[in-house]
């Protein structure tokens, strides 16, 4: 997919919306130094160009009792198309799997699993992961503390 060009005002809009997607157009325009109409047009143009994937609310996992982030390295017995598709389909169906990446290196996949506690993770591993055909190894690492978490993408490199 081709990248989109941004001027300084559009970059400010992008940064502001990544921080608070619920900001009113009037407040957004004021914060980036535009009048409301041109600001609204720029946002509409970015939407039309597919810059924004979707608008969501970020929920605090601790408020839901989801205290553990587990990073799971999964290796498959074979890396053929069918084996990859079987694994990908299985993890895409699991709400505990927040992220899944096909990797280079020692493991074929890296998962981020959010779950309540260690017994629940053990249950997830034994009843879900180990039941997926074609897995040769599973290695889990448990996050002790979330030092940084952001959903805002860096945009400084787009400045001209």
TrEMBL record:
Choose one Gene Ontology CC annotation of this protein and give it: cytosol
Q: Which InterPro entries match?
A: ArsR-like_HTH, AsnC-type_HTH_dom, Dimeric_a/b-barrel, Tscrpt_reg_AsnC-like, Tscrpt_reg_AsnC/Lrp_C, Tscrpt_reg_HTH_AsnC-type_CS, WH-like_DNA-bd_sf, WH_DNA-bd_sf
Looking at the keywords, is Protease present? no
- Biological processes per GO annotation: regulation of DNA-templated transcription; response to amino acid
Transcription regulation listed as a keyword: yes
All copies of the HTH asnC-type domain together span 6-67
Q: Keywords, A to Z?
A: DNA-binding, Transcription, Transcription regulation
Organism's domain of life? Answer: Bacteria
MF annotations from Gene Ontology: sequence-specific DNA binding
CDD domains, sorted = HTH_ARSR
Q: What is this protein called?
A: AsnC family transcriptional regulator
What species is given as this protein's source?
Acetobacter malorum
List the taxonomic lineage: Bacteria, Pseudomonadati, Pseudomonadota, Alphaproteobacteria, Acetobacterales
């Amino acid at each position: 997919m081709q990248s989109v060009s941004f001027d300084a005002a559009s970059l400010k809009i992008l940064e502001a919306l990544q921080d608070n997607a619920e900001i009113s157009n009037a407040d957004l325009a004021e914060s980036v130094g535009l009048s409301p109409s041109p600001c609204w047009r720029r946002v509409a143009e970015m939407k039309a160009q597919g810059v924004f994937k979707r608008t969501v609310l970020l929920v605090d996992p601790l408020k839901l009792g989801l205290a553990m982030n587990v990073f799971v390295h999964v290796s498959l017995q074979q890396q053929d198309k069918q084996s990859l598709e079987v694994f990908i389909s299985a993890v895409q169906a699991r709400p505990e799997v927040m992220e899944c990446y096909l990797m280079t290196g020692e493991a074929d996949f890296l998962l981020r699993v959010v779950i309540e506690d260690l017994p629940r993770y053990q249950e997830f591993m034994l009843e879900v992961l180990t039941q997926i055909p074609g897995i040769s190894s599973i290695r889990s690492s448990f996050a002790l503390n979330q030092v940084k978490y952001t959903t805002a993408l860096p945009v400084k490199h787009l400045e001209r």
